[in-house]
Design brief:
With 90 residues, the protein is mainly α. Helix content is 51%, strand content 11%. It contains 4 helices and 3 strands.
């Protein structure tokens, strides 16, 4: 199944962050507004909502992209299930 333009842009933004890069500003605003990414102490985190969206869109696109951190983050999580993202190169 093909992703819509909006879904493709969102997935691209999430994957860009997962690999330590910075997506376009409008994509970052969308991810923040949808509570998929949050910033805490000048560090970016992919929230459980962002992880779920990444997994959902990857499944629709026929991709398997998992961070090894995901399982560890959920096991150690205090219910928030956030994953620390690599430092972005600005």
């Amino acid at each position: 199944m093909a992703l819509s333009r909006t879904q493709s842009r969102r997935l691209g933004g999430i994957i860009t962050l997962v690999f330590g890069e910075t997506p376009p500003e409008e994509v970052m605003r969308e991810l923040y507004s949808m509570e998929m990414v949050e910033s805490e102490n000048n560090r970016l985190y992919l929230t459980s909502r962002g992880i779920n969206e990444k997994n959902r869109l990857c499944t629709l696109a026929g991709l398997v992209i998992r961070q090894s951190q995901e399982e560890r983050a959920f096991r150690r999580s205090d219910g928030k299930g956030k994953i620390l993202l690599p430092a972005s190169s600005s």
